[in-house]
Amino acid sequence: MKIFTPHYTSFGRRLLTEICTKNILGDKTTRSEIIASVVLIRPPLSAPRLSDIEEKYKQKQMEIEARNSLKSDFELQMEKDEKLLAKKRELEEQGKDLSELEGEIGITAAMKEDEWMKNAKVIKNKFVQIDDNEIRGNYKNLYRHPETNLILSVKQKFGSSYVSPWMLPQTNDVQNSLRGALEIAINEMFNGTIKMKMMGGAPFSYNKYKYPKKLRESRDIDYGEFFFFGAVLKDPSADIEVNDQLIADYQWLTAEEIDKKMKGKQYIKAAKMCIHQ
Hints:
Blueprint: E1 18-22, E2 29-42, H1 52-68, H2 73-94, H3 109-127, H4 133-137, E3 150-158, E4 162-163, E5 170-171, H5 178-189, E6 196-198, E7 205-210, H6 213-219, E8 223-233, E9 247-253, H7 255-261, H8 265-271
């Protein structure tokens, strides 16, 4: 049975978080630790800037569409409103009764447009900020690089003294399902301030990593079996709060920055598959 089918998202308590396999060269047992990791993406907030050629093509297309397209209901309503308002002004100048226009002039298209513009301004003020150098240099700012994906990278605390290098959020506390363990772990790491939407119930990628000698000897575990899940941040305006007992630091990085900050080519290659799906 394929390992990435939904059936394998629930390993059950019988596996706990370790798998023991016989070494093909002898009786020595190889101990592997099951680890669920998440590639949490803040999706683009805006379209990337157009090149000169793309801008020219866009203008030409808009001219062609404007020339060939029919008027929308809103445009027809605008024309009707203009005629009614002109007639209203004419009657007012002549001192005549406006009762004949009663029921025809209500909420005009222009009034609707003003309301839409106000709502658009509120949304822009909430979600769109100027992507200046100060914001770009603040790796905790969710509005940096609005035209591309950002990936959450963390320094996790393990035990009382060890702080990991930059890595993707992960957990080895897998009691029932990998996905469920990740959701609980992220909720605990960030005190419930990060809301994410998981991309399916099964991992999209896998990587087996051999631990350094000191770690193998201290923990009596040889390999980490990493199962990567994809997730999307629901609210980019969230005020993120970390659990200091679990997280030492965090950053939102582009794919290029991830390559520089995090070591382990196979690990990163497996994890970044999520971005291209």
